[in-house]
Amino acid sequence: MNFINDNNSSLTLPLEPVPINREGRRATITFLGTGTSTGVPQLGCKCPVCRSDNPKDKRLRNSALITVDDKRFLIDAGPDLRQQLITNQIFHVTGILLTHEHYDHVGGLDDVRPLGETNIYAEANVLEAIERNMPYCFGAKIYPGVPKMNLHRITTDPFQIQRVEITPIRAMHARLPVLGFRIGEIAYLTDVKTITDAELEKLRGLKVLVINALRKEEHISHISLSEAIHIARKVNAENTYFSHISHHLGLHDYVSRELPENIHLAYDNLSINI
Questions:
Q1: Do the Cβ atoms of 266 and 34 come closer than 8 Å?
Q2: 3-state DSSP call for residue 186?
Q3: At CB < 8 A and 24+ separation, what contacts does 269-273 make?
Q4: Is residue 41 reached through a cis peptide bond, with omega within 30 degrees of 0 on the bond before it?
Q5: Strands 118-122, 149-153: pairing kind
Q6: 3-state class (DSSP) for residue 187
Q7: How far apart are CA 190 and CA 182, in angstroms?
Q8: How many CA atoms lie within 13 A of 78 on its CB side?
């Protein structure tokens, strides 16, 4: 495996990171997709959510873009990525941060080829899955025109990309370890089932927390709506947004009215400036 920065040495620059939201730095999060692995509407389903005319009930697979000044960090690259990038007029990214290797989070990586040379940041097992599933992009004989991806191995240690500090947050997706990411006063977590109090401590002082809330009923590998609200209250961010949503959660407008103050359902193409 030819991963770059196996000890994170060149991920961390000798310069100190510039604090986000000081000295005029601007940060934005845009929700490119807020749906679970099947998206909403789900193929073949005729439930009220899947038949809804409300654009907020139309959910592509989960992904987000966090922008810090002119730096753009794409979190996950699912099978709807091409449509998401075109819709939001995203034609370059500074780096792609991958939470884990499931298809609904990496299945659109082939679509980054028009973006030119792309830097991918993920744990070793995720990078190994990419090389295994996309062999035509790696090795001595590379197929012409394939995406050019530089694979950077990260751990749970904080790292920097172009003087922007990124703090990984460990969580468990059933028995699969996954990463969330804190960038300044924004944190993005998805596919969480369990998370320790020690990791939650890394989320203190947030303006925006994003976390999954699959449905109201308990699930084997995702937190439910009530579990997500419990975590949101423990973190106590200024605002929390739920994502990775199934049609089983209910209609966007109805569920939104049931949520506590400062806790919201995200929806596709929503942008938040901080």
A1: yes
A2: strand
A3: 269/30, 269/31, 269/32, 269/87, 269/88, 270/30, 270/31, 270/34, 270/241, 271/28, 271/29, 271/30, 271/31, 272/28, 272/29, 272/30, 272/208, 272/239, 272/241, 273/26, 273/27, 273/28
A4: yes
A5: parallel
A6: strand
A7: 12
A8: 25
Q: Characterize 72-84 residue by residue with b for buried, 16 or more Cβ atoms within 10 angstroms of its Cβ, and e for exposed.
A: bbbbbbbbbbeeb
Pull the structure tokens for residue 116.
């030119």
Q: List the pLDDT tens digit at each of the 274 positions of the chain.
A: 666 654 443 454 445 555 565 556 799 999 999 999 999 999 999 999 999 999 999 999 999 999 999 999 999 999 999 999 999 999 999 999 999 999 999 999 999 999 999 999 999 999 999 999 999 999 888 888 999 999 999 999 999 999 999 999 999 999 999 999 999 999 999 999 999 999 999 999 999 999 999 999 999 999 999 999 999 999 999 999 999 999 999 999 999 999 999 999 999 999 999 9
Q: Rounded to two decimals, what is the model's pTM?
A: 0.93
Strand partners, 212: 243
User: In 3-state terms, what secondary structure has residue 4?
Assistant: strand
First-residue to last-residue Cα distance in the chain: 39
Q: Which domains does the chain have, with CATH numbers?
A: 27-273 (3.60.15.10)
Position of tokens 């009215």? 257
DSSP assignment string, 206-242: -SEEEEE---SS--SSS--HHHHHHHHHHHT-SEEEE
Give CA separation, 158 vs 56, 124, 167, in Å.
34, 16, 4
Cβ neighbors of 225 (< 8 A, separation 6 or more) are 213, 214, 215, 216, 242, 249, 255
